[in-house]
Prior knowledge:
Elements: H1 6-13, H2 17-20, H3 22-27, H4 29-49, E1 54-57, H5 62-78, E2 88-93, H6 100-110, E3 118-123, H7 127-134, E4 151-153, E5 169-171, E6 180-182, H8 190-197, E7 213-215, E8 222-224, E9 247-248, E10 251-252
Parallel strand pairs: 1-2, 1-4, 2-3, 4-6
Antiparallel strand pairs: 5-6, 7-8, 9-10
Helix pairs in contact: 4-5, 5-8
Protein name: FAD synthase
Pfam family, one: PAPS_reduct
GO molecular function: ATP binding; FMN adenylyltransferase activity
Amino acid sequence: xxxxxxxxIRSIDAVYAFVEDESVRSKYxxxxxxxxxxxxxxxxxxxxxxxxxxxxSFNGGKDCIVLAHILAAVLRRKAPNTEGIPxxxxxYVACASPFPELEDFIRYSSSQATGYxxxxxxxxxxxxxxxxxxxxxxxxxxxxxxRHIRAMFIGVRRIDPHGAALALESPCDxxxxxxxxxxxxxxxxxxxxxxxxxSPVLATNLEVSAQGVTGGGSHGVPYCILYDRGxxxxxxxxxxxxxxxxxxxxxYAPAYELQDASxxxxxxx
Length: 269
């Protein structure tokens, strides 16, 4: 496997500029506080559970990419002699009818050569069965078995369904496999997500031409191209459409132009 370009690694390492560089912190104070909390949450979880016992819930959405970028930076900081990005277990549970562009982006962004070096398990089954296998409860599940996962990083925010009652770390419910859920970006707002993804601090200056991918270059971090087509929240193809608030003369503005954050899910059926 090829190592990622040095410009990509610099973009990931630049996450810590929001934590340690006073000029960056003073220029982007609100975003810097969000990143600081996320970094500290990731650091604490990795210290508690160990990277080998952690996994990332990875669906290719905007929130998940913010978390993956931050987590990759923390993993690199904890493994200073690593040239690329330390491998992390990941789980993608496909919805009933996923967008092809989204799954193209998932392949791009999870790879070692172009993304976050995620050892990604693709599943269409019951997530409880997968987690039961990963925690060692289920010895009959036919998927890839890790059997030692103790914590899962999840890019959930408070605006998401059931997000309001969560903490930065929340154990799974008693009827689920025993696992700690880690929510580093729980307190982020819609505007914070796009401020991070499009931050010049994280610019890669690499032009991205892969199918399903946009962003990056001088505009920050690559993300799924559907967001540039007016989608602000992604679900199945049969119940997701571009956000109607972004329609302009029959076309749609990109997701980062949405002003009313409360309408983030307006395109979801």
